[in-house]
């Protein structure tokens, strides 16, 4: 029974640690499948975390907080869309600026809310969570957002490869000129993809502040937005590999905490670095096969679309 409890705890903790990466990563996957490269995931996650926390505290409803976070993430993505799709600004530079803006803006709006206690999503769903048996406590930590994150890879795969909308999305990402010639509105499709990515990133950020670590702290996303971006490349834009990469990152994150709990004589800073180091190593191994990356990457990724073309 003890071994079962440990196994359940590891699985649940891995799923929870992978949830923000699943949400933000698949949002970026949809965006990049349309041919748009948005490097502002970290900024959108932070804005979602800040506004989601503030919305939940002010309204007294976690659901309202999650909705506000998705709206905030989508709003920031809309700014990116206007600059890059309508005004045709450089996507890489605009995405980096979006992250810098999101870091500063989230810190500004959240300065009065730092350290404020919040029960969090699992505690709100199960008011007597702390009095339940340990095994039951672990199972109860799988909240609705974690369930959504588990379902997202299946939904994304179905949409991209089994629906007409997914076919159009891929067509726009591969050759926007051909899609335009066939009568599809390239800008409308890309705007929808960018807004979807922003809303998913906002939800991922809100999960961090309302469930995973129910509090607001400046820069609490801690680089997960960049990891989500890296996982899209690691997965070669395929949903199954992206889900596997997110779970791998979650597992390494949990291994870090387990090592600390077991009193391993290693610097805590080194242990905290392990998930990111593992991601970098995987990316280096993947990037060695340049042909595979080139064949799987959307052909129009990062290329501006001129409606008159």
Taken as a percent bin, the fraction of beta residues is: under 5%
The count of strands amounts to: 0
Mean pLDDT: 87
Q: List unreliable stretches of 5+ residues.
A: none
Instruction: Estimate the global geometry from the Cα principal axes.
Output: globular
Q: Helix segment count?
A: 14
Q: Structural class, please?
A: mainly alpha
CATH topology: ABC transporter involved in vitamin B12 uptake, BtuC
Largest sheet: none
Structure description:
With 309 residues, the protein is an all-alpha fold. The chain has helices spanning 2-33, 41-59, 62-86, 91-109, 121-125, 134-140, 144-162, 164-174, 176-181, 186-212, 224-234, 239-261, 268-287, 290-296. Helix 1 crosses helix 11 (224-234), helix 2 runs parallel beside helix 4 and helix 2 (41-59) crosses helix 10. The mean pLDDT is 87.
């Amino acid at each position: 029974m003890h071994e079962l409890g440990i196994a359940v705890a590891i699985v649940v903790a891995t799923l929870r640690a992978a949830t923000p990466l699943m949400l933000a990563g698949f949002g970026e996957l949809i965006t990049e499948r349309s041919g748009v490269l948005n490097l502002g995931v970290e900024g959108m996650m932070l804005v979602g975390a800040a506004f989601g926390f503030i919305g939940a505290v002010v309204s007294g409803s976690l659901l309202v907080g999650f909705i506000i976070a998705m709206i905030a993430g989508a709003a920031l993505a809309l700014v990116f869309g206007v600059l890059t799709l309508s005004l045709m600004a450089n996507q890489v530079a605009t995405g980096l600026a979006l992250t810098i803006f999101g870091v500063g803006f989230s810190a500004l709006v959240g300065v009065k809310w730092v350290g404020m206690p919040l029960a969090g999503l699992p505690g709100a769903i199960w008011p007597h969570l702390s009095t339940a048996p340990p095994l039951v406590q672990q199972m109860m930590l799988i909240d609705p957002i974690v369930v959504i994150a588990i379902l997202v890879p299946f939904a994304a795969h179905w949409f991209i490869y089994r629906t007409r909308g997914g076919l159009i999305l891929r067509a726009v990402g591969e050759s926007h000129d051909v899609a335009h010639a066939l009568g599809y509105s390239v800008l409308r499709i890309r705007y929808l993809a960018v807004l979807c990515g922003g809303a998913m990133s906002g939800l991922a950020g809100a999960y961090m502040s309302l469930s995973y670590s129910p509090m607001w702290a400046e820069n609490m996303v801690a680089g997960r937005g960049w990891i989500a971006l890296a996982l899209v490349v690691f997965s070669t834009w395929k949903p199954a590999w992206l889900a596997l990469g997110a779970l791998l990152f979650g597992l390494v994150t949990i291994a870090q905490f387990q090592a600390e709990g077991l009193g391993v004589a290693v610097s805590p800073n080194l242990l905290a670095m392990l998930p990111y180091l593992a991601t970098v190593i995987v990316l280096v191994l993947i990037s060695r096969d340049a042909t595979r990356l080139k064949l799987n990457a959307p052909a129009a990724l990062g290329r501006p679309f001129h409606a008159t073309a």
